[in-house]
């Protein structure tokens, strides 16, 4: 039991809904638009996607620890550390942490192979692309998260929006649909917003360690303006999804779930302490998850009626 608790903390298991929600949306799209839903394929997709997400969390910690970014965050007075702390506090050895990390990768790969056998090669391609993005988000030579040119934001939009939604839809139907792409964008943008906003918590430490996030490159004022823009774009894409038939008209009920996040922006100044961004992070997570759950419920209702 202690090992299980440690694993949950080391992998940051609590944030896994941001991956499971897009997978559920893609599978429900198949149910609503095509009348197809294989529960076993859905469960394998959930397990594979969850393993891939937890691998992403842990490989991020592993490379940020090796690069000194997490150590800098721990030593910077105003920074809020967002890693698990299992390496910086020496709870686990690097060897043990790496073994668990690659074990999750192996589980995700096995799920991808099984899904490819039953649904088609694109099921594996979607998973492989997600795995490559997760690894090279912080790993050399690409290091998307260190370049500060928007690559990391595009990577997150793909990994937590486009790929899981379209991949889950493909697993069920063995073909692709433009509606799945449209459905992926609102939830993908909201999840991108979570990852973008978390950079505000330790951007000074990132700058010190040479990690050039957009917050580091642009500064707080410009980055906050972009954060607001991402929220606006997520709302617009939700409306577009409804207009295109990817969601029923009552899918617009997901819009009010974004209002609390919008209200937090009004309480922030052009420059803030790192801890002042904690409410922004909390509201980002809640808005993304609540909006996603409302979209799921709307698709379930549409499929049943």
Give a brief rundown of this model.
Helices cover 72% and strands 0% of the residues.
Walk me through the structure.
With 305 residues, this protein is an all-alpha fold. Helix content is 72%, strand content 0%. The chain contains 13 helices and no strands. The chain has helices spanning 2-11, 17-34, 39-67, 69-75, 94-119, 121-136, 151-173, 178-198, 203-209, 214-218, 220-243, 259-265, 278-304. α5 (94-119) packs antiparallel against α6, α6 (121-136) packs antiparallel against α7 (151-173) and α8 (178-198) packs antiparallel against α13. The longest helix has 29 residues, at 39-67. The protein starts with a helix and ends with a helix.
Radius of gyration: 19 Å
**How large is the share of residues in beta strands?**
under 5%
Contiguous low-pLDDT stretches (5 residues minimum) are none
Helix content: over 70%
Which structural class fits the helix and strand makeup?
A: mainly alpha
Distance between the termini: 43 Å
User: How would a textbook summarize the main sheet?
Assistant: none
Order of helices and strands: HHHHHHHHHHHHH
Mean pLDDT score: 87
- The number of distinct helices, counting runs of at least 4 residues, comes to 13
Annotation, overall tally of beta strands? 0
Query: Can you tell me the overall shape?
Result: globular
